[in-house]
From TrEMBL, chain A:
Organism, scientific name: Fraxinus pennsylvanica
Listed GO CC annotations: cytoplasm
GO biological process, one term: glutathione metabolic process
Root EC class: transferase
Taxonomic placement: Eukaryota, Viridiplantae, Streptophyta, Embryophyta, Tracheophyta
Coiled coil spans: none
Keywords (A to Z) from UniProt: Transferase
Entry similarity comment: Belongs to the GST superfamily. HSP26 family.
GO MF annotations in UniProt: glutathione transferase activity
Name the UniProt record assigns to this protein: Probable glutathione S-transferase
Catalysed reaction, written as an equation: RX + glutathione = an S-substituted glutathione + a halide anion + H(+)
Domain GST C-terminal residue range list: 87-209
GST N-terminal domain boundaries: 2-81
CDD domains in the cross-refs: GST_C_Tau (cd03185), GST_N_Tau (cd03058)
TrEMBL record, chain B:
Reaction(s) catalysed (UniProt annotation): RX + glutathione = an S-substituted glutathione + a halide anion + H(+)
Highest taxon of source: Eukaryota
SUPFAM superfamilies registered for this protein in UniProt: GST C-terminal domain-like, Thioredoxin-like
CDD domains named in the record: GST_C_Tau (cd03185), GST_N_Tau (cd03058)
GO CC annotation terms, alphabetical: cytosol
The protein's name: Glutathione S-transferase
Keywords of this entry: Cytoplasm, Transferase
GO molecular function, one term: glutathione transferase activity
This protein's record includes keyword Transferase: yes
Entry keyword annotation includes Acetylation: no
Domain GST N-terminal per the UniProt entry, residue ranges: 3-75
UniProt-listed GO biological process terms: glutathione metabolic process
Length: 232, 222
């Protein structure tokens, strides 16, 4: 029997991606909670280079970085829905969007939430441009993966839930129904689908964490600006 | 046979990753040199999100981002596999490919370092290169084992372009006395026929790197 362990943290969208993928594939696993402020010897052993979560450990062998783990899961467990399509060109498109989401969207949207002034305006603009690209890829489809959830849907999880929470906290109007009707429809479909709906972190608990982070960032920004900076 | 075209720019190590992969697989292709100060309509149409090279166009369908193109080439042309068959080993290769990508910024900072920053930037680059040598390469001849694979191609820039970077900065890090195994890898990598026959001219590259650093370091870099 294969032994599967997932080292992660309840509030992390990156951990959540892996939980969703494992559950979609019907893979039994043990979840080991890692507080990144106090990393366990096991985490440091399994991810000595980056020391981050999530880490999947399959029969004692670790796999790190969420996008790498998602591909590993898809290649290792062929039962259940495919996370990536079979066609090489379509696989390239999935990887392209997954990379864009992680390397561009995530940092821009995080900055839109945590920064102020000119930096925030720039982050908001960048987020909007990137969201336009995503909106464009959804034409006619329920999910980025087509009729069923695929890797891009899973990787875009932070937009559907985490960003909506922080957007409200920061009083932003970046991702709205008026500007992005298809993305908002996708969010509803994604959040209401079986596995996702049953496995989201608790909204109030998540809001409390990000509220604290928002206040910390605002205080840090104010200190840097000499108390004179005004948010958005 | 569907047509394969590669839009590239001669000094780009990212473009060369794709050239090497195509040649290792024996894939015929047409190369189109792009002037990045005057990008072609084709490039802007094929890569609207990033507007960058390389872009591979296969049967009229564009694939952008060098590392994604490498995986596409690997999956489309199955001869001479460049990734391991075992899923865990593939995941390790992808992890290190991603690691190299994540650390690009550190190497770029080293390249642009002022006199004041040099010591700090050198220390950071050395730390990363040691991790690559000790943990990614280990005792192997190549990152891919006995023969080169996608991970070697992704680190290929260390074997040629990084020489120019060090020359421009005036600091040598990747040498035998400091990083013996990684240095040997650069020698072995460049001895491979496909690599040896497909590298940009060193002195042209050095001139380009000096010019580029001045451009980035000027008060109004745009």
């Amino acid at each position: 029997m294969a032994e599967v362990k997932l080292y992660g943290w309840w509030s992390s969208p990156f951990t959540h991606r892996i939980e969703v993928a494992l559950k979609l594939k019907g893979v039994e696993y043990e979840f080991i909670s890692e507080d990144v402020r106090n990393k366990s010897p096991s985490l440091l052993k399994y991810n000595p280079v980056l020391k981050k979560i999530p880490v999947l450990v399959h029969n004692g062998k670790p796999i790190c970085e969420s996008l790498v783990i998602l591909e590993y899961i898809d290649e290792t467990w062929e039962v259940g829905p495919s996370l990536l399509p079979k066609d090489p060109y379509e696989r390239a498109m999935v990887r392209f969007w997954a990379k864009l989401l992680d390397e561009k969207c995530f940092p821009a949207m995080r900055n839109a939430f945590l920064s102020i002034g000119e930096e925030q305006e720039k982050a908001k603009e960048e987020s909007t441009e990137l969201l336009k690209f995503l909106e464009g890829t959804l034409s006619g489809n329920k999910f980025f993966g087509g009729d069923t959830i695929g890797m891009v849907d899973i990787v875009a999880n932070f937009i559907s839930y985490w960003f909506i929470i922080v957007q409200e906290l920061a009083g932003l109007q970046v991702l709205t129904k008026e500007k992005f009707p298809k993305l908002c429809e996708w969010m509803d479909e994604y959040l209401n689908s079986d596995i996702i709906r049953e496995n989201l972190p608790h909204k109030d608990k998540l809001t409390a964490i990000y509220q604290a982070r928002f206040l910390d960032a605002a205080a840090a920004n104010a200190a840097v600006a000499g108390g004179g900076g005004s948010p958005k | 046979m569907e047509e394969v075209r590669l839009h590239g720019f001669w000094p780009s190590p990212y473009v060369y990753r794709v050239i090497w992969a195509l040649k290792l697989k024996g894939v015929q292709y047409e190369y189109i040199e792009e002037d990045l100060s005057n990008k072609s309509q084709a490039l802007l149409q094929y890569n609207p999100a990033h507007k960058k090279v390389p872009v591979l166009v296969h049967g009229g369908k564009p694939v952008a981002e060098s590392l994604i193109i490498l995986e596409y080439i690997e999956e489309t042309w199955s001869q001479n596999p460049l990734l391991p068959a075992d899923p865990h080993e593939r995941a390790m290769a992808r992890f290190w490919i991603d690691f190299g990508q994540q650390k690009c910024r550190t190497f770029f900072s080293f390249y642009l370092a002022t006199e004041e920053d040099k010591e700090k930037e050198t220390k950071e680059v050395l730390e990363i290169l040691k991790i690559i040598q000790d943990q990614a390469l280990g005792d192997k001849k190549f990152f891919g084992g006995n023969k080169i694979g996608l991970l070697d191609l992704s680190f290929g820039w260390l074997a040629h372009w990084f020489e120019c970077t060090q020359e421009v900065v005036g600091i040598q890090i990747l040498e035998h006395s400091i990083l013996p195994r990684l240095y040997e890898w650069t020698v072995n990598f460049k001895e491979e026929p496909v690599i040896k026959e497909n590298l940009p001219d060193s002195s042209k590259l050095l001139t380009h790197f000096r010019w580029l650093k001045e451009k980035f370091s000027s008060p109004n870099p745009k």
